[in-house]
Amino acid sequence: xxxxxxxxxxxxxxxxxxxxxxxxxxxxxLVRSGISVSEVAxxxxxxxxxxxKWLERADEAGRAGLEDRSRARLTxxxxxxxETCRLLIRLxxxxxxxxxxxxxxxxxxxxxxxxxxxxTVHDILRRAGLIEPKRRTRxxxxxxxxxxxxRPGKRPNEQWTTDFKGHFRLGDRTMCHPLTVQDDASRFLLxxxxxxxxxxxxxxxxxxxxxxxxxxxxxxxxxNGAPFASPGLFRLTRLxxxxxxxxxxxxxxxxxxxxxxxRHERMHRTLKDRTARPPSATLAAQARxxxxxxxxxxxxxxxxxxxxxxPASRYEPSVREWxxxxxxxxxxxxxxxxxVRSTGEIQIxxxxxxxxHALTGDLVGLEEVEEDVWRAAYRxxxxxFVDCRKGEPRPLATFGGGHEELGLM
Length: 409
Prior knowledge:
Blueprint: H1 20-32, H2 37-44, H3 48-61, H4 82-95, H5 99-109, H6 118-127, E1 159-164, E2 168-169, E3 175-183, E4 189-195, H7 200-214, E5 219-222, H8 238-245, E6 249-252, H9 262-275, H10 283-299, E7 336-339, E8 345-348, E9 351-354, E10 363-370, E11 373-378, E12 381-387, E13 394-396
């Protein structure tokens, strides 16, 4: 209890802030000094019943008696008894079954006993340390775009993988953010570039340089960190859109699953050992060090998975060339086409619906799949479904299907 009053009270000057326990102590002291319970209760803004309760607790346990107490029930009439808990835990350790099967098996073995619900059994196993709680996911996870287990590239330029190798402080106290890009099939390291930040402009420029030099991959796999993903629809970023304009598919690891990009993670461990312990004095020196390391990785060492051949002997540039001015997306004739505004919105169904700031100025296609329900796509990527049936349009993750790839460019 904290007293905020506009007039002087028994508790001193106005606007003085005290802890809950301190106020209760002062209430007790004032009553013991001879002031009536009614007057103290009125000044403190509490009931007389509360004052009597604090007096009783103070007599029993002093200051400790005035601390907040748990309001949990003292008895749980429907709690599962200890013997049943031990039985379920023993059965789990012996069989490894989940809650549903445990209830079934335990009920067959002990038909005279009553077993709790599946959720209660789950809690019993969790408290015993036999299961780990599931990772919580957002309800709108499908609107955030597809992620999935690792799909290895089987030929050069089928898949590039990319990530930042964390960041570390250089000798001059500035920060270095190494951007790494690798061809998945050949293990050819396309770049390890020392950047001052993870800003989109620098990363877009770095990738365009790689596209001009090595051509275009079919897809690029990244994690869900910036600038590879955002919190918005389909996790689109300006970097993703720059890739999509070139006809590159965007792939991402599942959140919190580094094993979805295993070859890249293993390469990062070598990078850290060889180039960052200790780091160089300046960014330019670190960049030269990374360049030499890339040459050694590609041409100076054999790779076990390549029968001890060097990655450079297995890699060849892509035949697909980077387009400095990619053509605008084309959609079937029966589709509606909208240009994304600077607010990231499009006009549809007499209202506006937000898609993504990353698509500002681009054309998206809309196909009516049911009356007042539209499928919104950007090039080959289905973004969402837009429901206009209730007046104000709203995006839906799925509508009789889900995210899919269209045969468009």
